[in-house]
Amino acid sequence: MEQQHEMDLIKRILEGETALFSTFLQRYSRSIHSMIIRIVPCREDAEELTQDTFLKAFKKLDTYKGDCSFSTWLYRIAYNTAISATRKKRILFPALDENLIKNVPDDAVDELLNKEDDEALFIKLEHTINLLNVEDRALITLYYTDEKSIGEVASILQLTPENVKVKLFRVRKKIYALVKKEEDETR
Amino acid sequence: MHWLKKKKMKQDNALKKVLEAREKGDLPYGFESRMMNKVMLEALRKRKRINFLAFSLVSVVSLFLIVGTIFLLKYYFQIDLSTSENPIKFSPESYAIFGFYFYIAFLVLILLGMDAFFRSLKHKSEKS
Question: For B128, which of A54, A113, B83, B94 is 20 to 30 Å away at the CA?
Fold first, then answer.
């Protein structure tokens, strides 16, 4: 129902009723901005990238075929815009030894990431998230914060659902390894 | 993935809590109206681009038709275009059916005009 209504709106916008685009702005600008600011933590950049996202969406509106929801399509544009902006800035993220990530026990990750009311851990996690590359940060933001399903995340990141699961699994281990590395360094 | 299978989805509470607490940041006041101005400008630019392309296309096609006609008259029918004398001779029978041709052309124009008129009426009623 919602998608049909949005398809009708798009059709009318393409036929010249440009003012109707404000409906999409009112509906999605906050959620798109909030996703971008979580992966590009600079207010000015996030605002600019939100603008770029909507302008690109308007320019490419005729390419939206309705094979996914409009919000997924918009999130995909936002994600690609944010990724290419960070690539242009050449931000370097610390690399981790692949073997170190592979050897992390699954149960230890489960235990660490499910601890409640551990302020010290929250601070470490906050620091660790900042060390993740933009792709990983976007992945966990979409999955945990924006409450997107695996299918939707896969559609936004243009990956297969299986690939998303593998990546999420790997990012959790990476977070664990980075937290442990920080703990070792502070000892 | 065992953690997705064995546990309820969307757990990892500590991670979720930290991600939710991260900067949310509100959009500045007037963002939507400023954005709409940009969108309107883009729409205007897009319309101008389309008009320019259509005009260019019509010009190129017209030029091609004119050049083609001249070429055909000069080299295929071997008509000397520099003389003012009309080289095409019509028989009296041909003159007789000219009226009919004009009548058909007039009917076609009327039908095309009606088609355009009813289409615009339908388009307007759909919009409202």
Answer: A54
What is the token pair recorded at A8?
């009708």
How far is A47 from A53, CA to CA, in rounded Å? 10
pTM: 0.72
Q: What is the pLDDT of residues A111-128, one digit of tens each?
A: 888 887 778 888 888 888
For A145-184, the pLDDT digits (tens) are 887 889 999 999 999 999 999 999 899 998 988 888 877 7
Measured distance CA(B128)–CA(B125) in Å, rounded: 5
The structure tokens listed for A182 are 């920080």
Q: What b/e sequence results for A113-145 when a residue is b if at least 16 CB atoms lie within 10 Å of its CB, and e otherwise?
A: bebeeeeebbebbeebbebbbbbbbbbbbbbbb
In chain A, residues with a C-beta closer than 8 Å to the C-beta of B13 are 113-116
Residue type, A20: L
- Smallest Cα–Cα separation from A166: which of A139, A128, A130, A137? A139
Chain A, chain B: beta-carbon pairs less than 8 Å apart? 114
Within a 13 Å sphere around the CA of A57, how many CA atoms are in the beta-carbon half?
A: 30
Count of CB atoms within 10 A of residue A22's CB?
15
Four-point Cα dihedral A98, A103, A106, A109, nearest 10: -70
Amino acid at B83: T
* Whether A51 and B35 lie within 8 Å, measured CB to CB: yes
How many Cβ atoms sit within 10 Å of the Cβ of residue B45?
11
Which of A110, A132, A142 is the best residue to mutate to test the B interface, defined by the most B CB atoms within 10 Å of its own CB? A110
Predicted confidence band of residue B85 (pLDDT cuts 50, 70, 90): low
pLDDT in tens, A42-61: 888 899 999 999 999 999 99
3-state secondary structure of A135: helix
How does DSSP classify residue A144? Answer: I
Name the amino acid, one letter, at B108: V
Backbone phi, then psi, for A149, in 5-degree steps?
A: -75, 165
